[in-house]
Fold this protein.
Amino acid sequence: MIYTVELLITNKKNVRDPEGDTIHKHLILRRGYKCVRKVRAGKYFVFEVEANDSEEALRIVREMSFKLRLYNPIVHHIEVRLRG
Amino acid sequence: MPLSKEEIELIKRILGHEPRAEELAMFESQWSEHCSYKSSRLLLKLLPSHAKHVIIGPGRDAPAVEVFPGVAIVFKIESHNHPSAVDPYNGAATGIGGIVRDILTLGAKPIALLDLLYLGNPRDPHANWLVRNIVKGISDYGNRIGVPTVAGDTWFDKSFNKQPLVNVACIGLVETKKLLTAAPEPGDLILVVGNSTGRDGLLGSSFASRPLSEDTDKDLGAVQVGDPLIEKLLIDVIDELVNRNLVKYIKDLGGGGLTTAISETAADYNLGVEIYLDKLHVRESDLTPLELLVSESQERMLIVTDRSRLRQVVELLEHYEVPYSIIGSFNNSGRIKVYYKEKLVADVPAKDLAHPPALERPYKPPVKVIDLWKSISIPEPNDIADAIVKVFGSLNIVSRRWIYEQYDYGVGIRTVLEPGRADAAVLRLLDGTNRGIAVKGDANPRYTSIDPFRGGANAVAECFRNLVAVGSEPLAIVDELNAGNPEKPEHYWFFAQMVKGVAWMADELKLPVVGGKVSFYNENERGEQVKPTTTIVGIGRIHDVSKTLTIDLKEHGSSIMILGTTYPELGASEYLYVVHGIEAGEVPIPRPSLELRVASLMRQLIRNNYVKSAHDISVGGLIVALLEMAVTGGLGLNIDLSKVPTRGIRRLDELLFSESQARYLIEIDEGNVDKILKLASEYNVEASVIGKVVDKNHIELRYNSRKITVLDLEFLAELYYNNLGKAIEG
Amino acid sequence: MAKIAILKFPGTNCDYDVLWAIKSVGNLDAEIVWYKDFSVKGWDAIIIPGGFSYGDWLRAGAIAARTRAVERIAEAVSQGVPVLGICNGFQILIEAELLPGALLLNDSGKFVCRWIRLKIEKPKGPWLLLAYDGQEVDMPVAHAEGRYYVEDYIQIEALPKIKYLDGWNPNGSAYNIAGIGSSDGLVLGLMPHPERAAEPILVPRGFSTGGSIVFKSISKALKSGW
């Protein structure tokens, strides 16, 4: 079966996020959206994975992302989730 | 390494009591190898650093050299090896950030960057990841701050697979009279400008002062993320502060963070300091005083100004939206007093903090190195064309186009030559004249890992030759010494010999070593050091940038001439490694007096307008230099190898691949041959025409009437321009 | 004398280069204006130079395009003031929808810096006044997000364009588009850097000073109309 798996990559909490900070300060706050308190930027990937069940699909994406360094485990935090 | 028992005892005696946690953290940071140079200071005193054109030598954040009357160049080299091993993208990027800020401290405008990368085998998956991300980190950061990356050096070797060496250099331009040489005085205010302080890079300097751990997650605290946008704002605002004479003294907050910046300044100028940590602008509100003292958050600088100018400084900072805080002031006490919310958290004498006792480290040559200095017996290759192609296609030889096309080399419109076309980069001053400078960086890790004394000396010589070949007058160099664990005598020996080799050659060539850096602890978790490497970055003066020389062959019918003598020196050569798998032998003998004579001859020939193209001979030997000239120029060659002046050469491979020093190739008009030969003999340099440039697609090698081989130019060009990209991207 | 505004955002870094080229090749008066201080009054032409405004965060030019300064540029255009966007300036004009299309990440996924051969098609307006249709020029590019995209060629067919010559497209741009102008050529955007190609000393062997035509054109246009 084909499963759709999402991978979200953001900087770890203690690691600076200049992209999120700049977008927050220079775009969002400046144009009046003062109710937005914080912005974190990151990367988003969608994978179509062939697997026996959803658990396996998630495991494959987690393993692959680590091995192939789709993210850098030293600085990035990831979320792997099923879509739909 | 954390502080030794002796060091801790000494600190107790200095303070007169048990150190507070904050005070201990300050000492641990400042007395780390990276910040204090305690293992290298004594030997570094051997380097010659004086000359009449040296305005500021070692001591400040960067040295300054007068290149033309009233015009100074500020330049510096630095390493970011350990952060790049853990997080190559940010490690390399923040390396660029740091070196640029050092240039800003003297009021100079950064006008060029160099990247000197000693990387692993790109076919190894981990090394490949490091290569791509290091280059991307430098590219993304350097491009965004608007400083062109104009030259570099790269070497690929498996000893760097997990421990890359990332050396970066920055060149700055400033009018001599605008150099910030004034001293801060009691009453002057201290501002921190730029990025806010956070938890990143806590104790990063002591991280760089020990070998990497197996578990890289433990090293996370040392990772720093760069923000080139803030860096660019800093560059712009400091430029204006300096031009409007609003600032007296600037220091970068780099290794050691606030502690180092404050202690070094106070110690250098016999001052004391009062700092109020709670005034510092921060990213997280719960930072402790200790964390504030040693954080190494990027893109922060210390600005010192007197009270009367404060308002204008603040106005400018706010106009450019650069965050800042006023954290304290200078006084006469000689002590650093740190307060946090009214409470005194540290009280330390400045000079004692800034200057830990230097250590005299023992050294001795490892037996296995001496074993390498033997005569090498190898069979002559059956197929010389095959050997040539292997060497020319080797990753240490081929074009670095894959790398340098990712760097903006043209921003600033000073770059007169694009990368890959000449032995050094050339930048015009952009002052309405044709005056300019040449800049180049060189290293040969194989040489220094086999014979560090000769290797260090030859690195200086190679940089010197590159500056001469492009038509400049070499003026000064800086050095980066990358070595293993200084606590191990058999690692430290390499460092000691490299220093001595550099010092000797610099003295002989009259090239002041105006600054430099040392990176220790480049070893893996098994305690094996990487190949110790000496990187030399040099600058030269050019009176007319429109007359610089490039390596590409220019015209059918020209003659090719070699200057200098070729000896049978295959030891430690690229050929020996690539074709025979051997990394041993005697490193080519450094030849300072010949270097000087050939350089003088070259300068005379260039002054007489005899030289159409010029290339120095180095890694790979004579044949590689010839092929590089042909491929870049798109023209062929007919060469008679029997005409090469030699001494002691018996074999063809010795002739082609020997890496003898002090040699150049020049393209000249046939009509000038006799005049040049006459000059060469006056300078006591062996010279000879060895062939002709032809508008054909081949390079033909003969020995007298015997044809040796014919190589196809297009095939070689394909190899030269694409091999590196293929190796990295597969 | 006619005066040109060179707009500067946080992260702009080709401002001084353009100032130099305008003054030395175009022989015009120009000034670098910080975006917060920019107003339309008094400027005969406006240039948005290259660089990385706001670090190219989000998308290149995306944040700068939402500033008041760029709103004023739109006003200036409606008042007939010529506007030139170079590299990041082009990206800003595209994000502000003052020119049609989009600019995406180069198909190699990497920044590319190299000299390119180009040709000018259907030149119109002040910035290309001295150019003729089909004229070939050389200039360097230095960008990571230069791949031009447009949904339908019909949208841009009649517009003045600068195209990469066949075999010289560095980023996969649709229809080899390196630059594009508004229908009257008043607004022009291009990825290559004319200010780096306006002086012989900067030009590599085998190429020519393709950038000077832009500065000489605006100079003539401001003196004697277009």
User: Anything to note?
Assistant: The mean pLDDT of chain B is 94. Chain B touches chain A at residues 86-87, 89-90, 129, 198-200, 216-217, 219-220, 223-227, 229-230, 283, 297-298 (CB under 8 Å). The CA atoms of residues 79 and 139 of chain B lie 16 Å apart.
